[in-house]
Design a protein that fits this description.
By secondary structure, this protein is mainly α. The protein has 2 domains: 69 residues; 260 residues, no CATH class. The protein is 66% helix and 0% strand. The protein has 11 helices and no strands. It is globular, with a radius of gyration of 21 Å.
Length: 337
């Protein structure tokens, strides 16, 4: 009896909770690809996918079936083990970070006290999948794309770190649920508006999205680090990229937009449950991701590096110092202290 109650049953509950997170994320990734094509089509006065299913709603599943039945081609000069492992690593890292994301009060898989450090560590590991893919492909285009990505992600993670530290100073806790609860009455996107903008733009660079899609650079690198990939391995890279977009939008919502909290603590805003508000905020951030792709041209690589090291880094560091000084000067005590 103790074996079932102490080992098997908690294991079953944990697996069900993981599925309750992973399945909606995967469905969201699938329909994010459709939303991107629809939004870009609307902004460019086109129709977009509209043939597979009603209003084109089954298009993502048609794309998935097509990729699954394609042949997996591995270049003759590639390192087979690393070549196959790279997309798996990228895809897994886009999922494991959701363990600490709170969807509502008490609704989180792992409510650890250092959740923000866990997220930062997982986001830092994302570059490894891309470097492995670029090196193992034995292609100059893929290798150049991987080198670009490594430099780009390292550059913008520094400013993301300073932004997170600024939020942590205001909260006094590394727990993500505490960060959300500290925003009752005032979301951090207002008092920390410049850091909110830096975090979002750095998120575009972290996920290799336009206008920072230098690692993929179709015009000069012919798709960059995954140029040699096909079939399901290409699909895993695709899922990983869009999964990271949703994750970065969730982090933006938790850190600056109040997470599951409604904008005003009054009816009719309180009628919607917390997870619905959280999903709406993620959708709003994702729309800006797509909007930027439809309107912005790609940066030159020197412009990308200059923005990260000469603008975002010093500005975020100065704002961090000013925030710490203001908190000490006014004797403000964090909500969670």
């Amino acid at each position: 009896m103790n074996f079932w109650t102490n080992i098997v049953w908690p294991l079953v509950i944990t697996v069900l909770l993981i599925l309750a997170i992973v399945v909606p994320v995967l469905i969201g990734v699938a329909y994010l690809t459709l939303a991107e094509r629809k939004v870009m089509a609307a902004m460019q006065l086109r129709v977009g996918p509209n043939l597979v299913g009603p209003f084109g709603l089954l298009q993502p599943f048609a794309d998935a079936v097509k990729l699954m039945f394609k042949e997996t081609v591995i270049p003759s000069g590639a390192n087979r083990v690393v070549f196959v492992a790279a997309p798996m690593l990228t895809f897994m890292l886009s999922l494991v970070a959701w363990a600490v994301i709170p969807f509502d009060a008490g609704l989180v898989l792992a409510d650890i006290n250092v959740g923000i450090l866990y997220l930062f560590a997982i986001s830092s590991l994302g570059v490894y999948g891309i470097i492995m893919a670029g090196w193992a492909s034995n292609s100059k285009y893929a290798f150049l794309g991987a080198l670009r990505s490594a430099a780009q992600m390292v550059s913008y993670e520094v400013s993301i770190g300073f932004v997170m530290i600024t939020v942590l100073l205001c909260v006094g806790s590394l727990n993500l649920s505490d960060i959300v609860l500290a925003q009752q009455g005032l979301w951090f996107c207002l008092p920390l508006f410049p850091m909110f903008i830096i975090f979002f733009i750095s998120g575009l660079a972290e996920t290799n999205r336009t206008p920072f899609d230098l690692p993929e650079g179709e015009s000069e690198l012919v798709a960059g680090f995954f140029v040699e990939y096909s079939s399901i391995s290409f699909a895993l890279f695709f899922l990983g990229e869009y999964g990271n977009m949703i994750l970065m939008s969730a982090m933006t919502s938790v850190l600056f937009l109040g997470g599951w909290l409604p904008p005003f603590d009054m009816a009719p805003f309180t009628w919607l449950p917390g997870p619905v508000w959280f999903a709406l905020k993620i959708a709003a951030c994702l729309f800006v991701f797509l909007w930027v792709r439809a309107t912005m041209p790609r940066y030159r690589y020197d412009q990308l590096m200059r923005l990260g090291w000469k603008v975002f880094l010093p500005f975020s560091l100065i704002w961090l110092v000013l925030t710490a000084g203001a908190l000490v000067a006014f004797g403000w005590v964090p909500r969670t202290a």
